[in-house]
Amino acid sequence: MPGLQRRQLFTLRDLPAPQRESLCRLIRWVVGLAPRADGDDYSVGRGDERYYRIQVYHRNDSGNRDIAQLEWRVPESSAPPELETLVSYGRVE
After folding, report:
1. Is residue 81 part of a domain?
2. What is the number of structural domains in the chain?
3. Which of 19, 45, 73, 80 has its CA 20 to 30 A from that of 29?
4. Which residues, other chains included, contact 74 with Cβ-Cβ below 8 Å and sequence gap of 6+?
5. Residue 74: domain span
């Protein structure tokens, strides 16, 4: 389908410090400004607006099982350039 991007997965502990800091800064932006995906802000009547879906998983110490999953949706029209780069090229700057 046109417009769909493949999923980008990152493990924070595996990233070099500068990339980890950039990704954390982007996540903080998402948490601060984008509504949670389980809220009422994604109702009918928004037309053809596309969203970036951000999911954060927390794993236990053994890394085998997801402890928690949080999800946010960021409207494409208000996404920062860093998010677009992350989704399009799989890197943070």
Report:
1. yes
2. 1
3. 45
4. 30, 34, 51, 52, 54, 83
5. 49-93
